[in-house]
Amino acid sequence: MKLKLRYAALLLSGFTLLAACSDDPADNGNSDSPAKDTIDVNNFKVKGQSFMMPSPMQIADLIKKSGSLYDKGMLNPVNNSSKYTEAMKQALNLGVYGADLGYITMYENTPDALEYYKTVNQMADQLKITASFDQALMKRFSDNIANKDSVMVLVGEAYRRSDNFLRESEQDHLASLILAGGWIESMHFALGVYKNKPNEAIAIRIGEQKNTSAGLVKLLKEANKPEYAELLTLMEALDAEFQKVEIKYTFAEPTHDEGAKTTTINGKTEVKITPELLTALTEKVAAVRNYIIN
Amino acid sequence: MKKIIALFVLLAAVTFIAPFSGAQMCDQQAKIAGAHIIPPYVSDGQTYRAFVTAGQTAEFHATFFAGTTYRIAGATGEGDGNLIYSVYSVDPNTGDRALIFTNSQHNNAPYWDFKVTTTVEVAIEASLNPASNKESGCAVLLIGFKQ
């Protein structure tokens, strides 16, 4: 019996080693990698999102604070949802409609919020992730529809549960598409608002997406799906423009408040983004969005 | 012959079961960390996770935007305090890193808040608490932002 267990242990070790050695060649020689024993999460069977995408609600909040008025014309019309019959477009547009819902929530437009929540629910159903948008959540959403803060929490929670569900079921590629759709829609809002009423705070926030853009392209490449080719080409063209943004960062010591369990991150970041570059970004984002929603 | 059949059965079991058990083991940690992302914090809608063994470090990248307060919550194993995580600022041009925070200096706090005065690229490293004597586990990080 001991011998058999030893065989089993050896076999398990072998598989563990095989899994650990299945590195993605694209990541070899990455100069950013620290010298110590570090894992790139995407190389492991238990995959993860190795970089954080900003929540569409954060961008929507900035847009509202800029004084921009609610504009339903910026949203992807809900009747477009019947056009999305493939999982790829369904996932991308689940992200788009989620960002739309975030935008609507910021402006507290109850009828539109209900309409878009139903569409989000329908898209999630098509992707078989309804458990994340279950009846209990739907009821909480309806009960709290007039309370912006509660709706934000519920939407954030529903999307986190969807993300978790897709990663648990080894559908990371769909989780990445939801993030991509949400981010593109956020950029569409931000650039649309800038175009109508140029605002330095929004221009800077757009420029600060440089790293997110690069990370998203990497994520889509890692999915290694032939059907993503057109999307990837459009995203790479967009990223080429984003990489022209100049960012300079100066570190300063953080301050810690043990009692409040809070650290204040100090320092200074300067972002240089020209009006011409913003125009180019507007065109490239429009190209990606048109591909996604049509 | 029996030994060969037993080996084949074991091989098949490991091949088909291992990938699923690895993925599903993160669900509990996501729930433990999720208990700390509560109002006024809103989840960013993502789950950051990696399977780590003792001595290894998983790394996640994020942009923290100026004017926002973020909460990072982490978990591994069956309860709070088993995950060590550190947050570094990353210079976007040179890649130079500077330590901003490590929960190992704060009683392995399962969550911590970050007030961001300037937009900064960060790298978050996560590893198993050596004191837990765990060989491996799923490291989960969740990020929320304050409304």
Q: Beta-sheet strand percentage of chain B?
A: 35-45%
- State the end-to-end distance of chain A: 62 Å
- β-strand number of chain A: 5
Q: Biggest sheet of chain B: strands, sense, closure?
A: 5 strands, antiparallel
CATH architecture label name of chain B: Sandwich
Question: What's the rounded overall pLDDT mean of chain A?
Answer: 81
Structural class of chain B: alpha+beta
Offer a concise description of the structure.
The complex is a heterodimer of chains A (294) and B (147). Chain A has helices spanning 2-21, 56-65, 87-106, 110-126, 135-143, 148-168, 172-196, 200-207, 210-223, 229-242, 275-293, and strands spanning 38-40, 246-250, 255-257, 262-265, 268-272.
Write the layout of secondary structure elements.
The complex is a heterodimer of chains A (294) and B (147).
Chain A: H1 2-21, E1 38-40, H2 56-65, H3 87-106, H4 110-126, H5 135-143, H6 148-168, H7 172-196, H8 200-207, H9 210-223, H10 229-242, E2 246-250, E3 255-257, E4 262-265, E5 268-272, H11 275-293
Antiparallel strand pairs in A: 2-5, 3-4
Helix pairs in contact in A: 2-3, 2-7, 3-4, 3-6, 3-7, 6-7, 7-9, 7-11, 9-10, 10-11
Chain B: H1 2-24, H2 26-34, E1 41-43, E2 48-53, E3 57-64, E4 69-75, E5 83-90, E6 97-102, E7 111-116, E8 120-128, E9 136-146
Antiparallel strand pairs in B: 1-9, 2-9, 3-8, 4-7, 4-9, 5-6, 5-8
